[in-house]
Amino acid sequence: MSEAATAPGGASPDLLALFVWLSPAYPVGAFAYSHGLEWAVETQDIRDVASLIGWVDDLLRHGGPFADAVLLAHAFHAVEAGDEPRLVEVLELAAAFAPSRERQMETLNQGDAFVTATRAAWPAPIFERLAAIWDGRVAYPVAVGIAAAAHGLPLAPTLAAYLNAVAANLISAAVRLVPLGQTDGNKALAAATAAVREVARLADAVPLERIGGAALRSDIASMRHETQYTRLFRS
C-alpha cells in the first residue's frame, strides 16, 4: 500500500494527497477553463448567485461532472483490480465522450497535465504502464481515478474531492465573470456540497454502458463558446 493511503498510526486513510492534487495550485491549468459557463454569463443564464447555484447543481447531477465521476470510478476500479483491458475501455470512452471540441480540449489538456505532474512527484507503476497499454491522451477524471487507486486512496472521498474541485472552479469563474462578490461565491460553494455528496455516492453504481447526461444547455454553451466574440476562458 502507498504511503499516501495510511495516516500515521494507521487510524484512518490519509487524504492529504487529494488536497494537493485537487488544489487550484496543482499544475493542471484548471483556472483557464469555464466549462461553457462564460457563454452562460454572456446570455444571462447565469446572472446572480441563485442562477449560479442552479447551474452548478444541474451540472453536478446531470451534466459533464456527473459523467466524469462515473468515469473516475470505473478507472479507479480497473487499476485496483489490475484490469488493463477495462482501463483501456474507460480511457477510450472518456476521450470520446466530450460533446464539443472545447470540452474535449478541457478534459484532455488537464488530464495530460495531471499525469505529467503526478508521475514526477507521486510516482506509481501504473503511470509507467500507461504508455504500453494506451497510445492516446488521458481525460482528467480518469487520470485522477488512476492516481487515487495507485496510491491506495479510498474511492468515495476521491469522488467527493474531485466534484468539489470542479464546482469550486466553476464558481471561481462566475465570481469573476458575473461578477459576484466573495460572499456570494462562498454561498454557492456551500450550496454545492449537497449535490457533491449525493453524486459521489451515486456515481460508483452507474454501469459504464449507462453513462450519460441531460444538461443540454451546458453542452450548447460549450459549442457556442467557440465563437463567442470576447472570451477570457478557453472553454
Any overview of this molecule?
With 235 residues, the chain is an all-alpha fold. Helix content is 64%, strand content 0%. The chain has eleven helices and no strands. It has helices at residues 16-21, 37-42, 49-62, 64-81, 84-96, 101-121, 125-133, 140-150, 155-177, 182-202, 216-224. Helix 3 packs parallel to helix 4. It is globular. The mean pLDDT is 93.
Supply the key terms.
11 helices, mainly alpha, 235 residues, single chain
Concise description?
This protein is mainly α. It contains eleven helices and no strands. Required for maturation of urease via the functional incorporation of the urease nickel metallocenter.
Task: Please report the number of helical segments.
Answer: 11
Structural class of the helix and strand makeup? mainly alpha
Shape: globular
| Chain-averaged pLDDT | 93
Kindly state the percentage of residues in helix. 55-70%
Strand content: under 5%
Query: What's the Cα radius of gyration?
Result: 17 Å
Main sheet summary: none
SSE topology string = HHHHHHHHHHH
The end-to-end span amounts to: 38 Å
Overall number of strands: 0
The low-confidence parts are: none
